[in-house]
Write a structure and sequence with these properties.
The chain has 2 helices and 5 strands. It is of the alpha+beta class.
Length: about 110
């Protein structure tokens, strides 16, 4: 039964992670006693989302949005804050609105 559960867990993670191009999810923690504890942690190149840099976090969010949009058959605009910290974003079918800080501007301008 334990082997079946391990294979089921590994297969579940593999099926979910195959949908994503940039981010992977760790859905279970293997414990020292051999058991598995449920978790849901987004990983970017093996690094937890919370420890990743801003550019990686933004691209991970876009990857997740792309998969959910495809699954539900909808596309909504994506607002990217701190866009100046990302040199390249993942491709997305969604409209992207970039929010950028320009230190030379003293007043908010919409263009």
């Amino acid at each position: 039964i334990e082997n079946f559960e391990r294979v089921r867990i590994d297969e579940s993670e593999a099926r979910i992670n195959n949908r994503f191009s940039f981010v992977k999810f760790k859905l279970f923690n293997r414990q020292l006693n051999g058991g598995d504890a449920n978790t849901c942690e987004a990983l970017i190149d093996g690094v937890p989302y919370s420890d990743a840099n801003t550019a990686s976090q933004i691209n991970a969010g876009i990857d997740i949005i792309n998969v959910l949009s495809s699954f539900y058959g909808i596309t909504a605009p994506i607002f990217i804050d701190n866009r100046e910290s990302v040199s390249k974003i993942l491709e997305t079918p969604a409209q992207v609105v970039n929010l950028i800080v320009d230190p030379s501007k003293k007043k908010l301008e919409v263009s």
